[in-house]
Amino acid sequence: MTGKAADYVQRIAALVNAERAKAGCSPLRVDGRVQAAAQAHADDMAARNYYEHVSPEGRHADDRMDTAGYPAGKWGENIHKGPKDPVSAMRDWMNSPGHRENILDCGFKDLGVGVNLRANGPWWVQNFGG
Q1: CA-based, 20 to 30 A from 5: which of 46, 69, 84, 119?
Q2: DSSP 41
Q3: Which residues on neighbouring strands pair with residue 75, listed in sequence order?
Q4: pLDDT band at 104, cuts 50/70/90?
Q5: Using one digit for the tens of pLDDT, what is the confidence trace for 107-120?
Q6: Cβ neighbours of residue 2 under 8 Å, at least 6 residues apart?
């Protein structure tokens, strides 16, 4: 991934770790396998124009992470559609109790961020593993 989407992925990861630092949590490591699962979900939602944690085939984030080679024992997922920039996406997630809980769960160790900038989105995915 290159360009604006790649920049957005890095910015989301930095924003997540800044919020975690404020809460006393260790920073998350960006894991390539978790990253692949998050990007695949963002791309799939954009391509098939659905907005759900569960794919039309019934696959959840742990299934996608397992397919990418990450054995997801403890896992979480945040999705979002519409924000035009990382700061707006993070603000919305932090203002939502369930999404905030994932971001600030000190038990998570790994992060993957997916961003798809198609006109019917943008589509944002955070996957967490621990």
Answers
A1: 69
A2: H
A3: 129
A4: very high
A5: 999 999 999 999 99
A6: none
